[in-house]
Every structure is written in structure tokens, then in C-alpha cells.
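Quick start: what a row looks like.
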Amino acid sequence: MKKNAPRFLTGILAVLVLITLSCSMDLEPVKAGDTEVSFTIGTLLPPANALVLQNSPSARAVAPGLGYLYIRTIGGPTGSNGPFYGPFSLASGDTFTTTNIPAGTYEGIGILYATERLDDLTTEWEGQTRTFAELMRLPDDKFKLLTDDADLVDGPAPLDLLLDGRASGELLSPVTIAANKNNPLSLTLVPICGTSGITMSEIPENNVYTETGAPDRIIRKFIELDGIVLPPEYTGNLICTIAADGSPYIGTVAMFGEDGRQVGTTTTINAALTANRTVSVPWTGGDTYYLYIEYRAASLS
């Protein structure tokens, strides 16, 4: 018999949003014999018949619709200062091809796919206010400090804090780009959440995430759910409840595992809530999940 979810999971997330009142780089045309780099940005699984597509490589952590692509190389033939490419407007599910990245072997190529333009986001770095674009152009040694969340900093990496749920990404390493041919890259995009998330507790009242929202625009972002602990034999669902307080407008909702692969199907609401709405996906054994949500609300819980 299928087991029911433990009590602390039946209300595993309440999202409370408190409202405080108060140019793309052109691509050169691809020519015969050019060195090309290409990859496909994934898309969400459709609500209908999605389970048959669950193992599709395209079912990755990407915001649906129009997004913004950024690329940063590390090492290789371009030297130790990038370069930094983007933003490129690109819809989820589309294939990106460029001839701007020279052939050669790179220590790494970082790729971000964002829900909004990131160029003018600012943060303090080494005593100065820097924009996202300025940070992406730092020399490689400083750029690595910016993106390191393990040995050199306590907590999320500085770049993770700046992005804060606005993007998913991956660092491919190492990468060899062969000359005079197309070089397709395989991506496994994972949300970059910073402080947008909670560490789960066995006490339901503690599983509440809060943030400042906006009543006049749609916010599209990822929220990290970390520290989920269940018995190995558990076969139930992971349940997220969105309350109808204030009739928040909700667009698309989806859940992803810690590897960036979509779990369960996509929920499309595209309406103001008049009753509490739950999103339920199969628990796959991981202790970290990512919720993607689109909302516009003065309060959402």
C-alpha cells in the first residue's frame, strides 16, 4: 500500500511574499568552415503526457519563455580575462549557435540562463560597488573567488548571492573547441539560488519562505528546498502548498531535483488564486529540490 507523506511534509512549503510599497550583443552569421559552438536550452515538460518524457535530456531547470543567455570562458586561447559574452535573448527550447568563441582548450566555460537581464545588478566586491557585467569581466583568479562556494567562502558564493534565484547555470570543465566545425555542448543547468531558499525542518511551522515581491510585475525565479530527510523506503510525494491569501496571480510552477532534472509535471495556473493550491511531485530520494514559480502578488503564503 502506498504510504502517506509524514505530517511535516504535507505542508512542506508555505511561500509568503511581503510587498514593500515604496543591449544584446549581435551574433555574426555562421559561415561554412567557421568554428561553431552550439547547445540547446531545455524546456519544461508539458502537463499532458509528461511522464513519458521524464527522462528527456531537455527536461532541465530552465525558466519557460524568453530568457537571457550569458557565457564566460576561463583560460584557453583568449587568455585570463574572459571574455564575457552576452546577453543573448533566447527562448527556452531553442538552440544557440555562435562563432564568437575561438577554437582551443579552455579550463572552463560557464553558462547562465536567466529570467531577466542581469547586467545592472550590483553588489559589493573588494570594497567597491560592482555590476554583474563588471564582475563577469574580472581576471580568472578573481572570478574563481567570486564563484567558489566551497573552500574560500562561508555560505553561498558571492555570485550565487547576486543571482539569487534569477538564473540556472553550469560550468563545463575542461572544454576543447575544435576548429572549423560545429562543437555541440551538452548542458545540465542547475538553479543558482543564493538566499532564495530554506532548510527544511520536521516542524511544519518552520517551513516558511519569505521574500519581498512586486504587485506590478511577474517575478520568475527558483527557490531552493534543502535538507529534506526521509526514510529510504518512503514512496510518497513531496507537497508544496501555495495559499490563496490576497488572491495572488500564479503563472507556471515546476519542481526540479538537485541535478537540475525536472521532477513530476509542470503546473500551469495563469490566474489569481481563489483557493489554496498544492503542487505534488514524486519524492526521488534526494535531499535538495528546486521550486520554479512565477507570481505577482501583494502577499502570497
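That is the whole record. The chain has four helices and 22 strands. The CA atoms of residues 85 and 170 lie 15 Å apart.
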